[in-house]
Amino acid sequence: xxxxxxxxxPTAALIANNNIQVHGVxxxxxxxxxxxxxxxHIVEPSLDQAVALAVAKGFLKASTNPVxxxxxxxxxxxxxxxxNEPDISFVEAATKAIIPLLKINDLYIIExxxxxxxxxxMMRMIYKSRPxxxxxxxxxxxxxxxxPGNVMHELxxxxxxxxxxxxxxxxxxxxxxxxxxxGELHPTNAKTAEMCKLTENSSRDVQIAFxxxxxxxxxxxxxxxxxxxxxANKHPRVDILQPGCxxxxxxxxxxxxxxxxxxxxxxxxxxxxxEINNYKSFWCAEKVKSAKLEFQLKTGxxxxxxxxxxAFKPNIDDLRESxxxxxxxxxxxxxxxxxxxxxxxxxxxxxxxxxxxxxEAVLNADIIVFLxxxxxxxxxxxxxxxxxxxxxxxxxxxxF
Length: 400
Ligand code: SAJ
Known about the structure:
Elements: H1 8-16, E1 22-25, H2 29-36, H3 47-56, E2 60-63, E3 71-74, E4 80-81, E5 85-86, H4 89-98, E6 107-110, H5 118-129, E7 138-141, H6 151-157, E8 160-164, H7 167-177, E9 185-189, H8 190-221, H9 225-232, H10 255-262, H11 268-299, E10 305-308, H12 323-334, E11 340-343, H13 358-364, E12 367-370, E13 387-390
Parallel strand pairs: 1-2, 3-6, 6-7, 8-9, 10-11, 10-12, 12-13
Antiparallel strand pairs: 4-5, 7-8
Helix pairs in contact: 1-3, 8-10, 8-11, 10-11, 11-12
The structure holds ligand SAJ.
C-alpha cells in the first residue's frame, strides 16, 4: 500500500484485518512511526481500532520504502500544479519505487484520482524499465468513492468500479477486492474507470452550481431559495441540491479540473460550474461587506459580526479548502478593528482564528452570518432584531 493517508491507511487496515499481510509505505517517517505503534495520524471514526488491531495481529507494518509483494496499491495524492494542471508526480514516484520489485503475474492497481490515461502511462513506464515483464503483469485502476467521516463503512459496502488494461487484469483486480469488499464490483477498462471517478465528482459539482446559481437569482428576485428548492423537489423526478457558501474539500472542488485540463473545448458546463461555485464564495463575502456598510449608515456605529462555521461542509472539523474559511479571512482582512466573533463548534481552538461559542456570538452580534449548516446552529434561538445572512439554509430551520 503506497500512501498511508485518508484513503491508504483505512484501506490498508481493512485489508490487513481480513488476514492479508499488508506492508504500508509512506514518505513521512513520523507517519510510519505512528502506525507501527498501532496509532493513527488522521481523524476518521473507528479507524484507530482498525489500525491498532491490524498492527497488533502483525498483519500491518509500515516503512518509508516498499518491500516485495504480489499486489501493489498506489494511493498517493494527485494535487494540482498552478493553472489547474493535474500533478501525477506522486503516482509516478510511487510507481518508480516499486518497479525494481515487480515480478511476473504481480498485480499493480492505482486508486488515486488521476487524469484519463494515467494507468496506461504508468504501464508504459513500467514496461520500458522492465521489458521482460511486458504483458506479464496485471494492471488496473480502481477509484475510491468513500465519504470522509464514513470511510470504514463505505470501503466495505460501496460498489467499486474496476478498470483493467486488459480482461485478465480486470479479473485479477476483482478477485483481489472480493476478499474485503462486500459492495458490487463492476468490471470495465482503465480509462473508463479513471473517467468514472472524475464524472461522479464533476456531476455533483455541476448540480451544486445549479443550486448556487438559483440562490443568486432568488436573492435578486427576492424569493426564498430554500423554499423554492424544497417545493421544486416535490416533483417526483427533480432533486436539486442545496446552495452553500461555495464548494470545498479536496475532491469535488478539484476533480473537475482533471477533465477540463485535458478536454478544454468540450467541457463547457463542467468548467462553468467550477467558476460559479468559486464565484459564490466571493459573492457571499461581498454580501457581508454591504450588510456591514448598511448597518453603519443606519446606526452610525460599526456592526458586531458573528461568523458561523469554518469547516468545508456541515458537521465535520475539516477546514481544508474550505470556502467558509476563505470568506472569514476576507471579512477579517477588511474589518480592521471591528468586533468579529468566529464560531466553529467542531473545533476546540484554531491557530489563526480566535473561536467563540455559538450562543455568546449570537447574543452579542448585530449581524449573524451562517456559512456552514452545522447541526448545533439549528437549535439556536435568535431574536428578531438581529440581521441574519444565511448562505447555507440554516435559517429555515431556526426558530425566530
Ligand atoms: N455542497 C453544497 N451543496 C450540496 C452538497 C455539497 O454546497 O448540496 C458542498 C459541501 O458543503 C462541500 C462540497 O460541496 O463544501 C463537497 O461536499 P460533498 O458532500 O460532496 O463531500 P466530499 O467532498 O467530502 O465527498 C465527495 C463525495 N462524492 C460524491 O458525492 C459524488 C464522495 O463520495 C467522494 O468519495 C469524495 O468527494 C472524494 O473523495 O472524491
